[in-house]
């Protein structure tokens, strides 16, 4: 039931802090990250030399963030695959390849086929899912339930952020097992993850910033979403939300790719949304904002509190608290969920049931 909310999407957006708190609870143990669900020993984990993460849609974007985290913290090579492509392409497994499937519903046909294929090749399959007893859970060797509660709105919100936290826990567990991080280093990152729920609550208090940006998108035919590093994924996910519920053609690009083609789209008034938190690639993205602005783009930026440079360049800023750059995507995306919802509402659309879409895609 809606319990006072006007739509399921707003309810599920609001449930994100509690979902993440539930998922983190009891995960930091004496020896590191508690994840019995993996059903693998440290020795098994230390042998993993390649990981395939397979998923669709929003869950695929979780895979992109998980890759960044696993490669940065655990130093294990990760390939992220669209399940629908993976099933018809060559797969290069080693004796110690791990397969991770990410699927909120646990019933996405392409994702399940990919898992079966990898299992058939001798890989261990680990599932990150929301639905208890789903096919993904039944068919995998281990399952991490994100426990986000039922997600009813077609556009995934709370499953996205909770699945990213699950990805972070897996990355930290691996990093310890592989000897790439100490217990103290893992604890430091874990404490950053624990700041996420309150940071998201703070973003909720700033929803007026998203409302103010609505006019830039409401009548737009098209928009560009840009980001680098961990923020490129936030741009992909934000653009997907804008497309699927507000029907604005939003295209996401790694910011540095803009001058290899998409910059030709920019004309005076064209909306460009740049995800540019304080991180090691911040200044590079700022120069892409300048290039867009010089061609007349209207700029909406997601930036870190206190960033005056971005404040001076952008037409609107969606502010996020200061966070670790590997953790900030879990917070920054919340602005983009709210922005897409407000644009859809301004257009009189049903945010819970966008046209042509089903909650779970059970055909290939
Ligand atoms: C987008 C969305 C879809 C799903 C995709 C995979 O908001 O909800 O892109 O993420 O259909 O679904 P699951 O995670 O259930 O496998």
Automatic annotation (TrEMBL):
<feature type="domain" description="SIS">
    <location>
        <begin position="41"/>
        <end position="180"/>
    </location>
</feature>
<protein>
    <recommendedName>
        <fullName>Glutamine--fructose-6-phosphate aminotransferase [isomerizing]</fullName>
        <ecNumber>2.6.1.16</ecNumber>
    </recommendedName>
</protein>
<keyword id="KW-0677">Repeat</keyword>
<keyword id="KW-0315">Glutamine amidotransferase</keyword>
<keyword id="KW-0808">Transferase</keyword>
<comment type="function">
    <text>Catalyzes the first step in hexosamine metabolism, converting fructose-6P into glucosamine-6P using glutamine as a nitrogen source.</text>
</comment>
<comment type="subunit">
    <text>Homodimer.</text>
</comment>
<feature type="domain" description="SIS">
    <location>
        <begin position="213"/>
        <end position="354"/>
    </location>
</feature>
<keyword id="KW-0963">Cytoplasm</keyword>
<dbReference type="GO" id="GO:0004360">
    <property type="term" value="F:glutamine-fructose-6-phosphate transaminase (isomerizing) activity"/>
</dbReference>
<feature type="active site" description="For Fru-6P isomerization activity">
    <location>
        <position position="359"/>
    </location>
</feature>
<keyword id="KW-0032">Aminotransferase</keyword>
């Amino acid at each position: 039931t809606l319990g006072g909310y006007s739509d399921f999407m707003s309810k599920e957006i609001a449930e994100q802090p509690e979902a993440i708190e539930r998922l983190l609870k009891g995960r930091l143990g004496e020896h590191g990250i508690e994840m019995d669900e993996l059903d693998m020993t440290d020795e098994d984990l230390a042998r993993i030399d390649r990981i395939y993460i397979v998923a669709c849609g929003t869950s695929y974007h979780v895979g992109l963030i998980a890759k960044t985290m696993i490669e940065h913290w655990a130093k294990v090579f990760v390939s992220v695959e669209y399940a629908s492509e993976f099933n018809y392409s060559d797969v290069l497994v080693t004796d110690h390849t791990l397969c991770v499937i990410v699927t909120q519903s646990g019933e996405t046909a392409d994702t399940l086929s990919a898992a079966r294929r990898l299992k058939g090749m001798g890989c261990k399959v680990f599932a990150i899912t929301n639905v208890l007893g789903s096919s993904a859970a039944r068919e995998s060797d281990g399952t991490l339930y994100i426990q986000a509660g039922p997600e009813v709105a077609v556009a995934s919100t709370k499953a996205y952020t909770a699945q990213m936290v699950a990805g972070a826990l897996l990355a930290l567990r691996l990093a310890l097992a592989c000897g790439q991080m100490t217990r103290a280093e893992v604890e430091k990152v874990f404490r950053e993850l624990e700041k996420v729920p309150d940071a998201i609550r703070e973003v909720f208090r700033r929803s007026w910033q998203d409302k103010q940006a609505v006019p830039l998108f409401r009548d737009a035919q098209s928009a560009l979403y840009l980001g680098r590093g961990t923020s490129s994924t936030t741009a992909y996910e934000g653009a997907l939300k804008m497309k699927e519920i507000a029907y604005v053609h939003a295209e996401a690009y790694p910011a540095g790719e803009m001058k290899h083609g998409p910059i030709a789209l920019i004309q005076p008034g064209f909306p460009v949304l740049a995800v540019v938190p304080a991180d090691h690639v911040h200044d590079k993205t700022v120069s892409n904002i300048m290039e867009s602005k010089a061609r007349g783009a209207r700029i909406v930026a997601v930036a870190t509190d206190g960033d005056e440079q971005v404040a001076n360049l952008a037409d609107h800023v969606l502010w996020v608290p200061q966070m670790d750059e590997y953790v900030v995507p879990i917070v920054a995306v919340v602005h983009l969920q709210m922005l897409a919802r407000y644009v859809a509402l301004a257009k009189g659309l049903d945010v819970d049931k966008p046209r042509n879409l089903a909650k779970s895609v059970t055909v290939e």
